Every structure is written in structure tokens, then in C-alpha cells.
Amino acid sequence: MGNLGNVYFVFEITVAEIIFLYAYPRRRFFVLRAVLSCAAVFVAAYFIPLPSIIGLRFLIMLIRYIVLWGMTLAGMCVCFSASFPAVLSACAAGYALQHFSYKLVTLLGLTGMFNFIHPRIVTRGFVSEMMIFPFTYLAAFFTFGRLAAKNHYYRNTDVRFVALSVGTVAICMVINRFAPRGDVFATIGTSLYAMTCTLFALIVQYVLRVSVESKEESAVLQRVLQEKERQYESSMTNAELLNIKCHDLKYTISRLGGRLDKSEIDSINSLVDSYDSELKTGVTVLDVLLGEVSARCRNLGIKFTFLGDATRLGTMAPADIYSLFGNALDNAIEAVSKLTVDGMKQIGMTVEPREGSVFVSVYNYYSGELDMAGDLPASTKKTGAGYHGYGLKSIRLIAERYGGGIACSASGGIFRLAVRLKL
Predict the structure, then answer these.
(1) Rounded CA gap, 370 and 377, in Å?
(2) How many CB atoms are located within 10 Å of the residue 422 CB?
(3) Which residues neighbour 291 within 8 Å (Cβ) at sequence distance 6 or greater?
(4) Residues 409, 411, 415, 420: is their CA dihedral positive or negative?
(5) In the chain, how long is the greatest CA-to-CA distance?
(6) How far lies 103's CA from each of 143, 147, 179, 396, in Å?
């Protein structure tokens, strides 16, 4: 009445596709969508007949596989909310995995290792595939599948990935149809060729994605640094204007003499001194930045302390100083401002020259769990505009530019950022 072979194929393809899709964003009512989609695909596959016209068997079989795979692709589009090119690329990778596994079973079958299988309801081929596929699928999950999830492949729909994936599927389909039946050496040759092509395509796809993501991250980091450089230039201009105004205001107060009450004069002088007595580190750009940070911390009820000798930082480019310390302190202020206990609203920073290097340490309290993405904490910002998550990466980039590096640690509710600069 129907074709169980189609159902076997669709089942294997679906499981392989999920390996690459499991971390993709899901649509509402995902479970219901998945159940209905699987039911529809399996029923439709069961009633697609095998070709009966001998002369057109090759073309009809090719179209049959395309239709079956297209049905699984449509089902995945119904369940996952990623863009169509992203889902297409993942489904094509799933087909490549299924075909690799199928060809591996074909090669192993030539050894006679499956001859002991004599099923009554299902075919020997399906049983042998169910014996081997779990191993290849698990291996693919812990390599390509986990990488797809970790690097959020659904965010990148570069046309090269789609072309590579679909091209691989096309090669698999055509080569499989051209393979002579019954010739052992031809079967070995075409199977090895197909396995090599599919595995190579999966590896190249991953390498391409890493390359593209690396270039995109580099471009974003450059924009982050350029933005900090503009902030630095603006801050220096504002600081110069503020110093001029403070000087002019002091001169004006001195000329007023006895025209104002002593208490009023003292109050004005105290206000002026608060702007004119910020931390003095010996590095102008750092003085300006720390003045801004101190003002922000006062407004937010945060206690900020600085200790150390920063004079050797003067050999760094001013924009690099502003970006490195600015990003580090921005992250600390963001973390501390979320705290509800006043006693924990503290940020400390030390700068210590030692053994031909300068060691910078920024530490602050934080709340909640801190997830790590590699050797850096993941961004806690989920929405909104801006270059979220790139502050620490830009700090690391600057540190490496000066022959150093960074290290992050978190314990006892305290987060510590350590930066080493060879100066």
C-alpha cells in the first residue's frame, strides 16, 4: 500500500537536521508544530510511490529524493523562526550527514557484518543503518552540531554557506544515482567519494563561518575603538573647557570680595574645588577619564577608589588608555549599579608597575550567575542597541597590542579583571 523506505529516509533526514537546528530559535507552539509537521511529512512520504517507468527511473528517483528532502525542509521552516537561508543551510548539512552515514553502512555491508540480520517487518538495510547511524550522528552532534549552537549559525545567512550546502546535497543525490549497482569496486569508489565530499563540505562550511565571524568581530571591535576614541576627544575638549571655566569662576569670586557672605563664597569655592580636585595620576587622559567616572559613581551612590602609580602608562597612545580603562570601568559600573545593598556598591582599581610591565586590576561586586563564553564572561545585555559584549574583547585587543593580555575571575561575589601591559 505504501513505501516504508520513504519513511525510513525521512526519519533519518529529520534526526540529522535536528542536530544542526536544535539551538535555532523556535516558533510559538513549537511542540504542536513539530508533532503536526512530522505527522504530515511521514504520512505524505509513505504514500509517495516508487518509480515504475524503467526508462525514467533515474530522473524519477532523483526527483523523489528532492521532494522528500524538501518536505523535511518545509517542516523545519514551520517549526523554527530563523531565516529561510539559515534553515536551508542547516537542513542541507543534515542531508550531508545522513548521506555520509548511509555510505558508511554501505561500505561496512560489503564486509558481511550485517548478514546475520533477518528482520521480518523492516528491511535489513534499515536495521543496519539503525546500528551505525547513532554513532555517526552523535559524533556529528558533539562536533558540528555543538559548534553550530555555540556560534549561533542561524544569525549568519551568507550566500556562500547556502550555496555550499545545497551544492553538497546535489552532488550526493546525483552521484548516488549514477553509482552502478552490483559492482563492488564501483560501490567502494563512489561511497568513499561521497563520504569525502560530505565531510569536506561540513568542515569547509565551519571554517568559512569562523572566518566570516572573525572578520565581522574584528570590524565591530574597530568601530568600538573608534567610538571610544571619539569619546576621548570629546572628553578632553570638555575637560579643557571646564578647567577654563573653573579658573574664570575663581577669578570672578576673588573680585567679588566682600559683596557676598563668607558662607556663600565658601559654598561656591567648595563646588569649584570638587571639579578641580579629582584624582591626579600623572597621565592627563586618565585624569580626565577618572574624573568622569568619579562623577558618575557619585550620582549612582557608588564608592570608587583608585590606588597605584600610573606614570608609566604615559607611553601608551591616549586613545588606547581611554578605551581600555573606560571599557573596564563601564562594565564595573553596570554590574554594581544593579546591586541593592549599598555596602556592595564599590569599585576598586589599582595600577602597579612591576618587572617591566604594568599590572592593572579592576574589581567589583556582582549579583547572579556569571556565564563564561570561552575565557571571557558573556554579555548580560540581551536587548537594546550598542556593541554589547565587545568591551572586554576590545580591552584584550589593546592589551595584546602592548604585548600583554587579560584574565578574568569571579569568586565570592567579586569579579576581577586583571590586565598586563608590557611598558
Answers:
(1) 7
(2) 12
(3) 239, 275, 278, 279
(4) negative
(5) 114
(6) 20, 24, 12, 46
Residue matched to cell numbers 520513504: 6
Tens digits of per-residue pLDDT, 171-193?
A: 666 666 555 556 777 778 777 87
- DSSP of 298-354: HHHT-EEEEEE--GGGGGS-HHHHHHHHHHHHHHHHHHHHT---GGG-EEEEEEEEE
For 15-67, write each residue's pLDDT tens digit: 999 998 888 889 999 999 999 999 999 999 888 876 665 556 667 777 888 88
How many CB atoms neighbour CB 284 within 10 A?
14
Angle between helices 391-401 and 318-337 (to 10 degrees): 150
For helices 57-79 and 30-46, the axis angle rounded to 10 degrees is 170
Give CA–CA dist 10/68, Å, rounded. Answer: 7
Q: How far apart are CA 138 and CA 72, in angstroms?
A: 20
Map grid coordinates 557672605 to a residue. 261
Q: Strand pairing partners for 84? A: none
